[in-house]
Structure formats: C-alpha cells, structure tokens
Amino acid sequence: MARNITYREAVNEALAQEMERDETVIVMGEDNAGGAGSPGEDDAWGGVLGVTKGLYHKFPGRVLDTPISESAFIGAAIGAATAGMRPVAELMFVDFMGVCFDQIYNQAAKFRYMFGGKAVTPVVIRTMYGAGLRAAAQHSQCLYPLFTHIPGLKVVMPSTPYDAKGMMIQAIRDDDPVIFFEHKALYDLSGPVPEESYVVPFGEANVVREGGDVTIVTLGRMVHTSLEAAGQLAADGVQCEVIDLRTTSPLDEDTVLESVESTGRLVVVDEAHPRCNIATDISALAARKAFGSLRAPIEMVTAPHTPVPFSNALEDIYIPDAQRVVNAVKTVTGWSR
Amino acid sequence: MVTVTDDRIVLVTMPKWGLSMQLGKITAWAVAEGDEVRVGDDLADIETEKITGTLEAADAGTVRRIVAGVGEDVPVSGTIALIAPPEVGDDALDAAVREARAVIEAGVPDDAGGAAELQTADVGGRKISYAGAGEDGDVILLVHGYGGDRNSWLFLQEPLAAKYRVYALDLPGHGTSVKDVGDGALGVLADAVTGVLDALGAGRAHLVGHSMGGAVVLAVAARDPGRIASLTLIAPSGFGAEINAGYLRGFADARTRRELKPVVGQLFADESLVTRQLVDDLLAYKRLDGVDEALQALLGTLLDGNAQRGDSAAALAAVLAAGGGAAPVTVVWGRADRIIPAAQAESVPGAVRHVIDGAGHMPQMERPAEVQAAIEETIARAG
Questions:
Q1: B118 vs chain A: nearest CA distance in angstroms?
Q2: To the nearest whole angstrom, how far is the Cα of B368 from the nearest Cα of chain A?
Q3: Domain A206-334 maps to which CATH number in 1.10.3430.10, 1.10.10.10, 3.40.350.10, 3.40.50.920?
Q4: Are the beta carbons of A1 and B176 separated by less than 8 Å?
Q5: Same domain for B274 and B256?
Q6: Helix, strand or coil, per DSSP, at residue B175
Q7: Count of other CB atoms within 10 angstroms of residue A20
Q8: Distance between CA atoms of A12 and A297, rounded to whole angstroms?
C-alpha cells in the first residue's frame, strides 16, 4: 500500500527493511547513531540531516558511529564488504570524498576485476550532493561525474521518494560498490511509496514526461527543474519529453537514443560543472549514435565552471533554473541553418 | 452540485474512475459548442493520476456550453459541459455555467474523504486487501485476473455502486494483498474470495471474475453453490486448451519496461490504451518482493506446457447441478481477445453469452458500459 512519505523517510525505510531482512546489513558514519554513549542523547541525530534517525534503537550494535576520519571508515566499510557484510556507509558530503579516494576507486572498484571475479564488494556509500543549502564551495558540489568515470562503481541518484527507497534496496542487494547520491534539497520532497520492499533496477532511465518536440535528459534535483520548464513550455505548445537517467553508471543509452531519434532535438540539464560532466557525456552519445536524427545543435544547461558561491544571490544564479531550461529548449526549437 | 433552472439542461460531469480518483484533467475535447452528440459518442479525453480514458456521452443532444477547458483540473462530479436542446435560452445556460465554474474553482472539497478506505481481511493468516463502494443493495464482488488487481475494475466499480454494494479485492500475490500464494493452487485464491465474503458478512453475493478470476469464482461457487446469487465470467480461463502461453510467460518474465510493454499490448484490441503509466504501475507491482515467486507459482496452475490447465466446465457443471436456486451465469468475451480465444465462450454450458466487438482480453476496460449492462442483466435474472 502506497502512502506519501518524504525522500528522507524513504531512504530510512529502505535501510530499516533491509536490516530487518538481512543481518549482514550494517550502517556506519559520522553521528549516524548520534553520539552513542552519551546518556539520553544516543539517538539524537541520525546523521547530519537525520536520515538514519531511529535505526539505532531498532538495530542496536548495527548502527556504528565513526570518528571524523573518512579515509578510515570508508576503508573499513569496503573491507567489511569483502569479508561478507553489506555495509551502508554515510559519507556526509561528497565534497569530503577526496580523502578516501584510493579506497574507493583503486580498491573497491577494482577488487572484482583484480581477483578474477572471486571477490565481491557489496558496499553502499551514501553521500549528499548539490547546491542550495547556503553551504558554500566545500559542501555543495555535484561530484557524480568523477565516480561515473571509474569502471567498477555503480553511480545512482534518485530524484523521488519512490526511487530513493527502491534504489537503496537495490544498492544494498547489489554485489558491486554503489555510490548513492542524495540531493540535500530533495530530503523534504514527499511522494507515494509502497510500504512493502521493492527494487528499482539500475540502468533503467525513467521517462517522467512524454512529448514529441524536444528531449530533455536530466538527473537528480534537475529532474524537477526540467519538469517545471516542460510545464511552462507546454503552455506555449512545445511538448518536451523529460528523461530522468536515475543512474549514470550503468547508463540507459537506449532510452536516451530512442527519444532523441523521435524528437530530433536534445537539451541536457545537469547541475554539475560543465566540463566532463553528465551533460557532455550524453551530448557525445547523441552526437555519435543519433547524429542522423538531430535537427538542431545540442544544448546543455549546467552550472558555470566556478566553485559554488557563498553569496546567497550568486548561489541562486549559479543553480540552473527552469527559465534557463526554457531558454535552451527555445534555442533548439527555433534553430535554423 | 449545480442546480439548473431548466430541466432540459443535462450536466456532463467529471466521472469517477477508480475509488481513489478526486480530480480529472481534460486533455482534449472531441466536441465543440453547437455539436450534436449521440449516446456513446466520444466527448473528451480525461487524464487522472492513474489512467487516461475517453468520456462518452450518456445523453444525446446539442453541446451548448463547454464549462471546463483543456488542461484544467476538475473535481469528480464537477460539471464540465452542458447538453441542452437549441430552444433552451442563454440565461439559463449561463447561470448553470456560473455555478459550475464556482465548483471547479473551489477544487476538491475538504470532506471528499480521500482515497476509498482500503480494508483488510485475515484469511487463514493471509492479509487480503479489498475496497468497496455503494451503500445499499446486493453485494457484488469483483475478482481480477493474473497480474491484475482491484484497479482492473476502475471504470465499473463506481457506476455499479449506484445500485449495489460493490467490492473489489486483490487476490493473493497481487496488489497490496499478501504476496505468498503457497503452491499457487486455485483453492488458495478461492479461499481469499470466500474470506472476503465472510469479512463482509455477505450470505449471498454476485461474483464477477475476469480471466483467472473467472476460474477462481467458479471454484468458490462449486464449493458452496447456495452462496452465489449470480456469476458473470469475463474471458474466463479453463474452458478450453488454447491459451496464449507466450503472453503469460512474457508477463511473468519481463524485467524492464521495454520487455513488458509489447506483452501488455496483447491484452487490448486498441494497443494505444497501454499508456506509460499503465506499464510503470505494472512494473512497480512486479518489483515488489515476493511477486516474482507468486507469478511463477500461478503459471503452474494456469499452464500445462503451452496448453491451459484446469477444468472450469466441470466446476460450472457442479454449480448448475446444485439445482433448486441454481444461479444465473453469464459469459462475456471480447471478440478480439488475443489471450484466450473468444470461441471458448461456446464451451460455457448454460450461460448467456455476450461477445463484444472492439474489445480484447480486457472488455471491462475497453467496453465498460457493455460489461456493466451484462452484469446488471445477470443480477436481474437472479431475481
């Protein structure tokens, strides 16, 4: 039975149901229990934005507070995964991933390959990304392109509560390392989510709006920005097809290409910096494999190639908004040789 | 409710398709002001959260006013157009339009009650979901087919509720009911139907079963014929060897939208009814824990190699042999059924037969008005 819960609650419910189902699932990270050992405060936080709140009492001993040392506890989670556990480690902000990059891209991502398929690494690294929280340059980045670049990692970024629960359950049951991106600005988004456990498979994009004039490929928070733009454009008679990639690795090329082949026009909307991001990746895919279908140059809507500004006014301008998507769509529909 | 000063004005209202529907959006009008319409003509395409459908005219006449525009959200039962003879004056029409606009602009009333309350019966430890509509009259229980759920009846349940108490359940392995179907035998499914009748306190009831649900209601009736007031079987399974086994296995095995969509298309005469939302809803169901196992187990009940398993004719014979107050039986089939051929309607002894043009395996979705008429006629025969 589906009822409306928030994105935050959806992730929490997925964790709770999988911990109930499989005792090898453990949760670890900074303040995930919330200061265990402090009387009266031992379940106060549940992570910095409260996603794991309540798990500590349901699963005592399986929600671990870690020191503020990402290089240590991400390495520990990866090691535990190779030894038979299914850890879900919370790395507060993706911006902090740099200090544990060796553990992730040179170890976790390579084990299956280096050990001839004999090792699996079923670790999930949950992390927050994205601008909009007035958290400035070191707490607001969209670093998913870095991880998408590395073979051996699965990179997923749910845009709705429904996807958040199903993709978290899939991530935990998956035998490969999964980097699970949660946009800070989506935590309070509410939507229908079944009470039962279910999975959303990786590598299947979601066509969230159908239309025949322009394809908008997007992901994460920008799905909602793109839908807002598509709604405005529909009032002007321009029908956009909006595709939520859901996962960047694996990537559902077929859904993107089929749509571009039918519309002939492509706008890619990505909150990441514009160089070597998902927008450039999707643009290259379409230019190479759907070249004959394109009726206009591809447009990209991205953040600028600058750090995320601390100034509120500048941060608001930095984040792509619906107006910029509308403008890009009008550029491709109005293009003539 | 809009009051009219001239009783020749007919209100065309937003239909209620499915118990949870509160709002509908008109995506296109098929008529314009001044057009003549006959009963059954297409009036408008309407989109709900669940489904897109076509509203047909229930009355003949001239469309005098279109009240709700394309893209506008209208509460269920809100007036969207007015049909009236040409001699009705503009003043009366305009007054009705003003009232109707006020209803639309007020939106969904706070006391609308939200989604119809889903109820749960405990049947031998298995949780069975069902939902009802209607205040008075005989009890009708609607039983869906393989891979379906209570929403299979969304075009029928509300219209029938005007005269009857109409319930639809989710069989085990389906919808929001328990996903465990044991060995998948028909008896497990029949227990769920009997359990819901018990929970409703219904001594006698009219049963309507679609496809596999047809075999299920026959199994229920054969066990306890005295409890069944009438049977309406819609493309029931088990009346002949021929069945589209490729469809059944394709449905059970499909993992992605790409695999599922062409399979589901075979259900309908008009494949354009297979909206993305329909496929997405089915995928979301198939991805619930336990559903895969349930669908595979039920395949063993429905199929023997590539032929149909089961003997619905024997079950029906047992019902008819009960004598005395044997219940009237009707069989409804879509002529363009690509899952179980409509010719099998001839193999249902002692039944009144309706073969419906322009419908595939889902006549209750493609031709709901005709299926509704067949059900009501069967109930009338029960006396």
A1: 9
A2: 26
A3: 3.40.50.920
A4: yes
A5: yes
A6: coil
A7: 12
A8: 42
Higher pLDDT, A115 or B109: A115
Spell out the CATH class of A2-194: alpha beta
Give the active site residues of A: 139
Say which residues have a Cβ less than 8 Å from residue A79's Cβ, sequence separation at least 6. Answer: none
Q: Please provide the DSSP assignment of A197-249 as one string.
A: -B---TT--EEEE--SSEEEEE-TTHHHHHHHHHHHHHHTT--EEEEE--EEE
Three-point CA angle B199, B204, B205, nearest 5° = 80
Q: Is residue B2 part of a domain?
A: no
Q: Which amino acid is at B285?
A: Y
ipTM over 0.90? The verdict is no
Q: How many angstroms separate the most distant Cα atoms in chain A?
A: 71
Tell me the C-alpha distance between B204 and B225, whole Å.
10
Q: Which residues of A touch B176 (CB under 8 A)?
A: 1, 194, 196
Q: Which of B179, B287, B290 sits opposite A200 (nearest CB)?
A: B287
Percent of chain B residues topping a pLDDT of 90:
64
A194/B129 touch (CB, cutoff 8 Å), yes or no: no
pLDDT of amino acid B114:
46
Q: What is the largest CA-CA distance in chain B?
A: 68
Model pLDDT for residues B13-45, shown as the tens digit of each residue: 888 887 677 889 998 999 999 999 988 788 998
Q: How far apart are CA B345 and CA A293, in angstroms?
A: 49
> DSSP letter at A99?
G
* CB-based contact A89:A69 (threshold 8 Å): no
When CB atoms are compared, the residue of A1, A166, A210 closest to B287 is A166
Identify any residues that bridge with A127 across adjacent strands, giving them in sequence order.
A91, A181
Residues of the domain holding B16: 10-112
* Enclosing H/E stretch for B333: strand B329-334
Residue (of B170, B168, B167) closest to B135 by Cα position: B167
Question: What integer pLDDT is reported at residue B5 of this predicted model?
Answer: 75
pTM of the model: 0.86
d(CA A296, CA A219): 22
Cβ-defined contact of A204 to B276 (cutoff 8 Å): no
Omega before A250 within 30 of 0, i.e. cis: yes
Number of domains chain B is built from: 2
Q: What is the DSSP track for B193-254?
A: HHHHHHHHT-SSEEEEEETHHHHHHHHHHHH-GGGEEEEEEES-SSSSS---HHHHHHHHH-
Q: What is the pLDDT of residues B221-233, one digit of tens each?
A: 999 998 999 999 9
Best mutation target, B119, B289, B291, to test chain A (most A CBs within 10 A): B289
CATH assignment of the domain containing B310: 3.40.50.1820
- Rounded to a whole number of angstroms, the distance from the CA of B356 to the nearest CA of chain A is 32
Q: Tokens for A301?
A: 């809507």
> CA–CA separation, A65 vs A28, rounded Å?
6
Instruction: Find out whether B92 and B101 touch, Cβ atoms under 8 Å.
Output: no
Q: What is the overall mean pLDDT for chain B?
A: 91
pLDDT digits (tens, 9 = 90+) for B278-328: 899 999 999 999 999 999 999 999 999 999 998 999 999 888 887 666 789
The residue from B112, B139, B165 where one domain ends is B112
Side chain identity at A129, as an amino acid letter? Y
